[in-house]
Amino acid sequence: MVFVAVHTGAGFYQSGKRKKFLEVCSQACETAIKGWKNNSTAIDGVVEAIAYLEDQMITNAGFGSNLNSAGYVECDASLMDGRDLLFGSVGAVQSIQNPIKVARLILDNQRLKPPLGLIAPNFLAGEGAKKFAVSHGLEDYELISGKSLNIFNKYKRQLEECETASIDDKHKKYDTVGAVCIDDNGCLACGVSSGGLILKKEGRIGQASILGSGCWSEGNVAVTTSGIGEYLIRTSFARKTVENLNGKNDDTQNIVEKLVQVFNDNFFESPLMKNVPREDHLAGILGLSTDTDNIEMFWGHSTKSILFS
Questions:
Q1: N or C: more exposed end of the chain, with fewer CB within 10 A?
Q2: Residue 292 annotated among the catalytic residues of the structure
Q3: Residue 215's closest CA among 26, 63, 43, 40?
Q4: Catalytic entry in 8, 31, 59, 176
């Protein structure tokens, strides 16, 4: 049985927008399933679902993403195949409609044997990532929407005038979108895509690009994360979660108890987080766990909410 789950980020959602985000999540899953072919794999399902989310202006991935401090969009994305643990990642890439498709190209390219003993990269960033994407047939695409530009102009002006102001909840876009999938062979995959934080520094790369932070698929578990990227990177949150849920702690615990323990031991109380204000301990996770008879979807968050389907 094929199963796909997606999220649009962990954070605060205005009540008037929750329905639209949930509809987009549902449509992303439907798109992945409708595009399924006899030879499709879990990686295909993840890419189809995330590409759909990237195309929706309401999400903070691909078109309509947050603008950085210089006024343009830089996107991060990554993908992991649980079959062979291959990982493909792109960071701070500009003007590519679907960054997740670049991550897919990078992942697939590792299965080819380069000439002259060269090593195929698993992570490309910036202009090099864009050139790689274009050389493989992906087109240059304008990612700035009118709405995201207006929001940028408002807060950029306040920043320049040194006003004491915070970004309104209604203008916040959540850090990532993500997907997890299991195919009819029981193989798992996961992925993540993000436009990053509004007014982020040029060249900033978040957890959506970093191995073990934005997504991880190994053994019987696959996850995708959201939250404050710097701290998800610091704690390798995705990988630590999968390691624990795969049974490296008390096997008498159920998955909810294990997930709570992961948040406590590897995030809230991690030595790596001791200098981080408690109010910034913000993370969310969506995942799948499977055995021979069951598929279990799970989620957790320390933010006000996380929306998924």
A1: N
A2: no
A3: 43
A4: 176
